């Protein structure tokens, strides 16, 4: 029981920390690069690699989201969900900043930057240790192979901080709508305000732009900040949703619901999703999905999982309706 409380506290802390920075990456112009394995990328003879297929040819996922309108970034998300080689995906996404492609490329490169730094990335085979049963070893080995395959085609320069900064600037210059929405949200919700009313209006404007994206990766990055506020009377921090205030110190269930939001907006959250597969490869816990992970965390708290899922569904409905007032 004490272990589960610690795990709940950890995931809540991780969610809050996740919104502090916006990891943006730059359009790669590699000095050398391995050729892609599929016919998605063409070398035009210059220093840049170009993507052949158009967005119109991207396969759509019928379960992509529960929103009333199709997100502008839907074709990019669809390609990201099915990608087994993130370098190939990045080169594709960078061709479409108008669809949020620069933002998605930034996320993919940031993910691989963290993966290649891990000790298991350079191992040819996942080491077997006493204490791991065959099933757990098999799951860890499979997860590690998935991450290696996704990130092995990058060269070091493509994952450097300088490239990250360059593409962030390029994306903002090219008016990538997801970059702009996240930047506006962070600026308007963290800047100083002269009054509570001004603060509320700033938050309202930021939420309007954010919810209009209907994008799971942006919601993932913003994380708890979509609902995190300070009580005007007590100064206590907590989640505010649909007129209810949930103190951060005593109610972690809402934080878990926010962790699941990207799944309801179209992100593939099964065992191959980045957060799930990375946790497994690291030897922390192997789960079938984000939902399965949360359910396991709450198995010793009767009714807690059902509460999380109810808040999750209500939030997904509010986002789909672009109901800014639900988060004020």
Label this structure with key terms.
328 residues; 13 helices; single chain; mainly alpha; disordered N terminus; 3-stranded antiparallel beta sheet; two-stranded antiparallel sheet; globular
Summarize the structure.
Helices cover 50% and strands 5% of the residues. It is mainly alpha-helical and 328 residues long.
Note down, in words, how this protein is organized.
Residues 1-67 have low confidence and may be disordered. The chain has a 3-stranded antiparallel beta sheet with strand order 3-4-5, with no helix packed on it. Strand 1 and strand 2 form a beta hairpin. The two termini are 34 Å apart. The chain is globular, with a radius of gyration of 20 Å. Helix 4 (101-116) crosses helix 5 (134-151). It has helices at residues 2-17, 74-81, 86-93, 101-116, 134-151, 161-173, 177-190, 196-213, 216-222, 253-264, 274-281, 290-297, 304-320; strands spanning 41-43, 49-51, 228-230, 237-241, 244-247. It is mainly alpha-helical. Helix content is 50%, strand content 5%.
